[in-house]
Amino acid sequence: MPMRIWKWVGLAGIVGVTAVGIAAGASTIKRNRRDFVDANADELRVRLHQRHCEAQERLVS
Q1: CA–CA separation, 29 vs 45, rounded Å?
Q2: Is 52:44 a contact under the CB 8 Å cutoff?
């Protein structure tokens, strides 16, 4: 019987850790999405060009 309790405690711990991970991931996605939604088209264009140049530099080196 005591073994069953530890199984449930372990299962509850796994579920809790998973829920926290999902919540943290969702907030990160929302934050990144907000950065793009709040910016105007010119700012987005400049940022995308910068990211493209950085990616090209990483490929060359």
Answers
A1: 20
A2: no
Global pTM exceeds 0.70:
no
Q: HSE (CB half, 13 Å, CA atoms) of 5?
A: 2
Let me know: does 36 contact 44? Beta carbons within 8 Å: yes
State the DSSP code for 40: -
Q: Using alpha carbons, list the distances in angstroms from residue 55 to 41, 44, 45, 49, 50.
A: 21, 16, 15, 10, 9
Task: Measure the CA–CA gap between 42 and 31, rounded to whole angstroms.
Answer: 20
Tell me the pLDDT tens digit for each residue of 2-52. Answer: 678 889 899 999 999 999 999 888 888 887 777 777 778 888 889 889 999
Tokens of 38: 């709040």
